[in-house]
Design brief:
The structure is a single chain. The protein is α+β, with helices and mostly antiparallel strands. It is about 35% helix and about 20% strand. It contains four helices and four strands, in the order αβαβαββα. A four-stranded mixed sheet has the order 2-1-3-4. A hairpin with a 4-residue loop joins strand 3 and strand 4. The longest helix has 17 residues. The termini are far apart. The N terminus is likely disordered.
Length: about 110
């Protein structure tokens, strides 16, 4: 299962540098995987609207990708860009923790 939300093509390379490139590794339709997908989509649509690519990878369907990424726990979110790669494990229900992991400042 792969899903990508992409910005419309434009010639502005500066905005592409700030595009969040996310990979969510899941295990089929397990309850934790389903929650992680729902929670992450909500977070992305709320805080990163039109500024992210989300690739959802089912390790049962694509085990070679999981092996390449050296996955040790699932669900796992890998932020590839912008900035340093970050990894978050769990169902993404702790919004503040996910936002911190993505490097998104909140006004709390």
């Amino acid at each position: 299962m792969t899903e990508q939300n992409q910005l419309p093509s434009n010639d502005n390379d500066a905005s592409d540098a700030d595009l969040y490139r996310l990979r969510l590794f899941i295990t089929g339709a397990s309850p934790n995987s389903t929650r992680a997908i729902t929670n992450l989509k909500d977070i992305c649509e709320t805080y990163l609207k039109d500024n992210y690519e989300l690739e959802i990878i089912d390790v049962y369907q694509q085990p070679s990708i999981a092996q390449t990424e050296q996955i040790i726990a699932l669900p796992l979110l890998v932020k590839k860009a912008p900035g340093m790669e970050r990894r978050l494990i769990g169902d993404m229900s702790d919004i503040d923790k996910v936002l911190r992991g993505l490097g998104i400042a909140t006004d709390n």
